[in-house]
Specification:
Layout (H helix, E strand, L loop, with lengths): L1 H51 L4 H28 L2 E3 L6 H14 L5 E5 L6 E5 L5 E6 H6 L2 H16 L2 H29 L5 H31 L4 H14 L2 H13 L24 H4 L7 H11 L1
Parallel strand pairs: 2-4
Antiparallel strand pairs: 1-2, 3-4
């Protein structure tokens, strides 16, 4: 009994140190992702400008658009994620069971109460979003509420609150809008290239114009991959850390382990999820479709369960 107590204290110290390091890293990562986004948008616009013969005003416009999209992602990305997932804000009287569970865990963790949303879906899933703990939301499917026992659901909610506490939610939420903007710009470039052609005399650009045109086409082809790589900047280790810190919050790792087993066993996909929001969820919402496995931001659930049970 004494050995377990010492082991538990060591785990708390280890994960507390890791969590604070992760919070600092996530704050830095947010600005790094925004910088990458702005540079990418302006760079791609410069290539489009050279290809189509537009004036320098296109670069100014690209800069303004990237700044606007950054503000949208920072202040409104959570609303976009919730709306696209079909999440509905609830009050305490709508679901006292879930509301009290979130309240109790927030009191234990010292977090402010997030907005609580329900997704009307039989799929077993959940996610958290927002720019910081004071502006956070969590969403649970009706399926996961019905399927899990009290300790299991508590483990899932604690996992999501851990994402809130270590600022994973800020990085994950910003990624949604930035990745979407890159995809839209790539599509626009495709249509401009096909229907617009180049303006002016092709000889004016010389070899440099041809090089930029080729670079633009290459960038166009790989832009979806770049967008996915930006999503992968949200490291897989965030799930392991949220599992561990959530289990330390409930002091019952087996609860989350059993919840993950049930989530893994369910073959119901979340139809309202998209590739832009998939990285938010506690598990892959597509249930094994190849499109989500190529660039999966989720570690294997089996490995997560294994790690949780070493904590018990």
């Amino acid at each position: 009994m004494v050995t377990m107590s010492v082991k538990y204290r060591l785990e708390i110290l280890t994960y507390s140190h890791t969590m604070y390091s992760e919070i600092d890293a996530n704050k830095r990562k947010t600005w790094f992702l925004i910088l990458i986004f702005v540079v990418f948008i302006v760079g791609l616009t410069f290539i489009v400008q050279q290809w189509l013969g537009y004036g320098p005003e296109s670069l100014i416009l690209a800069g303004l658009v990237s700044v606007i999209m950054t503000f949208v992602s920072y202040y409104g990305g959570d609303k976009i994620a919730l709306a696209s997932s079909g999440a509905r804000l609830i009050k305490k009287e709508d679901n006292p069971y879930v509301f009290r569970m979130v309240e109790n865990l927030c009191l234990t963790s010292g977090l402010p109460l997030p907005k609580i949303h329900i997704i009307n879906s039989p799929a077993l899933n959940a996610f958290a979003t927002g720019r910081d703990p004071k502006h956070a939301s969590i969403a649970l499917t009706t399926g996961i509420i019905q399927a899990l026992e009290n300790e299991e659901l508590e483990g899932v909610i604690a996992h999501e609150l851990s994402h809130v506490k270590n600022y994973d939610i800020r990085v994950m939420t910003i990624v949604i809008v930035l990745v979407g903007a890159i995809s839209l710009l790539a599509n626009w470039f495709t249509r401009a290239h096909i229907f617009g052609g180049r303006r002016g005399n092709d000889r004016e650009g010389g070899n440099m114009g041809n090089i930029l045109a080729i670079a633009g086409l290459v960038l166009l082809l790989i832009s979806p991959i770049i967008a996915e790589l930006i999503k992968l900047a949200v490291s897989r280790k965030r799930e392991f850390l949220a599992d561990a810190s959530g289990s330390l919050l409930t002091r019952y790792p087996e609860g989350l382990a059993r919840a993950l087993e049930k989530i893994e066993a369910s073959n119901l996909p979340l139809t309202t999820a998209s590739t832009a929001t998939a990285h938010l969820f506690i598990s892959n919402p597509f249930k094994g479709k190849s499109i989500s496995n190529i660039f999966s931001t989720h570690p294997p659930i089996v490995e997560r369960i294994k790690r949780l049970r070493t904590m018990a």
